[in-house]
Amino acid sequence: MPYNELRKDFLLDRWVVIATERARRPxxxxxxxxxxxxxxxxxxxxxxxHMTPPAVLLYLNSNGKIIKDKDTATLRHKNWVIRCIPNLFxxxxxxxxxxxxxxxxxxxxxxxxxxxxxxxVESPNHDEHPANAELxxxxxxxxxxxxxxxxxxxxxxxxxxxxxxxHGQEAGASLTHAHSQIIATPFVPAIVEEEIQAxxxxxxxxxxxxxxxxxxxxxxxxxVIQENDHFIVLAPYASMNPMEFWIIPKxxxxxxxxxxxxxxxxxxxxxxxxxxxxxxxxxxxxxxYGIHLSIDKRMQDFYHWHLEVYPMLAIWAxxxxxxxxxxNTVTPETAAAxxxxxxxx
Amino acid sequence: MPYNELRKDFLLDRWVVIATERARRPxxxxxxxxxxxxxxxxxxxxxxxHMTPPAVLLYLNSNGKIIKDKDTATLRHKNWVIRCIPNLFxxxxxxxxxxxxxxxxxxxxxxxxxxxxxxxVESPNHDEHPANAELxxxxxxxxxxxxxxxxxxxxxxxxxxxxxxxHGQEAGASLTHAHSQIIATPFVPAIVEEEIQAxxxxxxxxxxxxxxxxxxxxxxxxxVIQENDHFIVLAPYASMNPMEFWIIPKxxxxxxxxxxxxxxxxxxxxxxxxxxxxxxxxxxxxxxYGIHLSIDKRMQDFYHWHLEVYPMLAIWAxxxxxxxxxxNTVTPETAAAxxxxxxxx
Lengths: 345, 345
Prior knowledge:
Number of strands of chain A: 14
Oligomer: homodimer
CATH architecture of the largest domain in chain A: 2-Layer Sandwich
Distance between the termini of chain A: 53 Å
Structural class of chain A: alpha+beta
């Protein structure tokens, strides 16, 4: 399997994976637009493990006890509660030759989309999406995020790990079975890098983490949707999307690797109730979420991980795409008020 | 009418218009998702001028001769060939008080989305989209782009003018009648500003405009789709979208204001044939296009206007939205080859 190609815009700090591994002929799009629809067999369903690559992580149910099984993960176990598998058509793939980590622009690795691309099956139950999930199952999902984050970040060629979720076909979910995706990249992506640099700059100026400061300043604002011992959920002041919200841990941490059990349970509870509120309020809309984090220890005083939820209730059109300016038809204050009300009717 | 609010992300150089003028209640989205569809009466159709605000620009057909009528533009003429009207729900609106242009962050204008937002009706004929348009009519469209660009950029509070087009409901076109949109903003948007700064940097290093250099280097590349005396059309090396292409003028110019008649006709011809090729190849896909330009004369040696076309054949999902890295499943070389073939069968 050859690598996908990694290309940078000739002017901007904008990277594109030319995913020849999942290459399409242009005319395929014409066909696809007339013949859309889901295949009837779900490859993520228990019993269909033969349809996907062997797992890289399995949580097994052994007489009611959960066993995290990495040694036997290559086998196609059937009694799993969580299953993480390589994406059949990965955007980023592991290196086949020793990787010069000093500079991704140097050596034979130049232009290769080296990394990982995995699908995390969140439950054996097709529709156990976070808004509907049983809490213990959602804690397994969080656990699995953290486990994959730990394992993948140990690779010297990995500089960033994007953990994200697409819900609904309009939001890019090509399979309806509850799943997240994990992509490890050989560089820090532009949006996160800009956030990290701006956070660093903010810290230097204010002697305080930008996100810790945000939490402090927003705590009593009308943009708060919910708050508990460990997390605050708020509609950001400059939300790009209608009903957008962020889940921010109160404890300063660069990434979720060191969450304790109570924090993980709280995260699962907060995620579930927030997504449930969105689902109830807006008729189960398509959405994307992504965790923003850093695995660069030098940034640990500056950066603060969080999860951003982007409901897909508007279309980014010509103006947004060619300018990077967004038009949002719902004020974050209204979004927060309605989500809060739906949360606690 | 109060202003929309202009908000900046607390960390990033990312601006959002909180468009309270077109404000929606969150629950409207639930309704909209179940009751989608077009109203049967087209407000942009000749005879329905009473459904829209008075025009700011009209091209009138007077016994076969085209008259550009600005004086009578406030009247609701019926025999128009081009009609430009303020958007009923503008994202940016003209200032009601004298505007301090020295700093948009200062004074009473702070946080106000001051500017213009117009709809340019491209033809009295509902379906005269650029791919189908008669060439003389498409030249009128280009002429109108330039006329509005000239008029709007004369306002001291206008720092940028975005001319864009959304084709198809999935690409954000809420009306099916052939139309473009024009938005004038009180700041230079992030993507364009980054392009301008990178171009300036490139010019300083290479003693040459980055786009002029690109044209020279790409002329014989497999990414060229078509080329004529005045324009080159190419699939950019790091295309973000399947089948993306850019139309770049060969003559160095910061914006299209000084195009002569031959260049305008050539632009219309190039735009039509390129969009026609896309339409024929991929079954009339939804797309967005946007003109990138600068109205800042200090940048005239550095920046080079062009038009970018983004076919909407893939969904930007959780990974793209939270990282700013794009996955493109069609190589630009394949896209160019197929578009070229469809152009000249």
